[in-house]
Amino acid sequence: MRNDEPLLTSTVPDLRRPDGGFTLIEMVTAMSVLGIVMLALSSVMFGAVTADRGSSDRLDASQAEEFASTYFADDVQGARPDDDAHPATDGVVTTGTSRCGSSPSVVEFLADAYDSSAVATAKVVIVTYTLETVTGSGQTYQNLHRLSCEASNSAGLTDPPQPTPSFPLTPSSDAVVARRLSAGTTPSVTVSGDTVTLTLTPLAGEPFSLVGQRRAA
Q: Tens digits of per-residue pLDDT, 1-14?
């Protein structure tokens, strides 16, 4: 017996995309998710960089205090005692024009020394602490330099003073003893009896003081 009835066919549409691409809605959704992920990653990276810079600044301040303290204490201890009769030859000078180097002086020390090749030949050593302004990595800060000059003991620095030489003298050495100090805060120097104190402010962290004790007259 023949079955002449027509075969039933499915009328459900084929939802598959023959081109295998993405719809506009899928593209917009993917880009939105990617934007959120990138924003989160950027925030994490910015926080890490900021924290690293802060740690670096604090480490610089800690190292600056330790390094500068050694120099400063030695310079204060080696400075000449006060000379009320001849102030120009005082061992510690906190005002006036620098006699070592051309930069403005924060504090200056005057000490006696001898030529190693001729012990009888006296010399005068002038140590000047001065500031250098630096701009880098989007920040402006200051470095503390220690300049050292030498002069003959008869070059206007004797007691009593002889004819004054041509100042400033040319530094024989220049060492950076403290880095990344605040450019907006001026260092302060105080002399109380035989104690000399230099207070500095780093970019990060609290101000710190370098302290030295002068030798007795």
A: 555 555 555 555 55
Of 136, 142, 83, 78, which is closest to residue 110 (Cα–Cα)?
A: 78
Token pair 């906190």 is found at 94
Give the pairing type, strands 173-182 and 208-213. unpaired
Rounded CA gap, 69 and 73, in Å?
6
DSSP letters spanning 74-93: HHHHHSPPP-TT-GGG-SEE
Question: How deeply is 58 buried, as exposed, middle or buried, from its count of CB atoms within 10 A (0-12, 13-18, 19+)?
Answer: middle
pTM over 0.85: no
Contact, 196 vs 92, CB < 8 A?
Answer: yes
Specify the pLDDT at position 38: 85
